[in-house]
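Bit of a strange request maybe. I'm writing a small parser for structure token strings and I need a real example to test against, not something I typed by hand. Could someone generate the tokens for this chain?
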Amino acid sequence: MRDIYVSARETWVWLGPPSHDSDRAMDMLQSFQNRHPSHTELGQVSQGHWDSIGNLMRRSWWTRIWVIQEVLSSMRVDVWCGRKRIGVGCFVRLEEIRRDFAFRHIPTQPFANILSNWSLNQQIVRRGDAPLFEWMADTHKFESTLRRDRIYALLGLSSQESRKAVIPDYSSRTSDTLLSTRTTAHFLIEQKMLLPLQSGFFRKAADLDLSSWVSDWSTSQAGYVTFVFGSAYNACGRYSTTIPRFSPPFEHLSDCPEDGSLILRGVLEGVINSAFPMPEVPSYSGSNTEEDLRSRMLRREVTRLTCRDWKEICDQNSSSDQPNLPESYYAAFWRTIIADRLFDGSGPPGLEHGRYFEDWQAGIDSDGVTDFRNAAVSRCAG
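Reply from user aminoacidic:
Good idea to test on real output. This should exercise your parser:
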């Protein structure tokens, strides 16, 4: 299917029939074709116009996973709604405006990530060297009618290695459970790191009999872990300049056990005594200033209380018969909750930052405490 769109002279997108305000939205987007309006101009746009654009961007086309391949593989893309037709560049410009100015007027939808990096994404698709794993992480909020199409729809965008490893099969021979198992195994071979085991693990479908190490790549609302720091912090005291890598338990996908078992060799470095999730406090994305402030304060307080509970558990597991161990536990603890990075990403911070945790818990405010608190909230609460 990818070859069809690559060779097409032009691709038309059909958003659907016109609505009471779709023509107004399309006309406004057309005015963005070759220019970026100033903040003054955008500030004069009526709420009715913003609402019409919001309604247009809520149409189901923007959430479907198959359309990504169709538009990114095409040389030219025009978007139709009713009798109105505009170039896809108008929507690329709209995403720039949304991020820069109108984020409270225009809803965020899954396709925003595609539009925000439009030119780069097209180049990546034409090179054909992007691993399937990267596309899975970038498109996890898209939807498909068939569960397995969450994977198959991205193969045309992915590298040749990924297309050889994951071959579309809609027969009963390949169950959704087997597909997720083989896909996770492929990601381990491809990435040579443990990150695939941390990704896509939330909200596994209840009807899939997946092994604990297998991610449910078919769930559109799965959670995906991304590594955002320049170097990894290890509580045992070692630093790494890259994401930790390992030798996969199998060299070829055919070596993956059919029963879903995963056997690894390793070295015991420590024992996890307790594990608790961070309570989820959804961030507020609306335009009400008071609600936004209330949400921020709640996230800060939940993070503070959770870190306090974690610290108590840490203290209970420290042992006085090992010299300096309580201090080691404490340093490892406060560095871990901020990923050993300050809020701006710089680090590792000096030992003096250890006191900011206690000051934060005690309600003492200062520049250092504020930076520590913001780092902890961003690393723990997301």
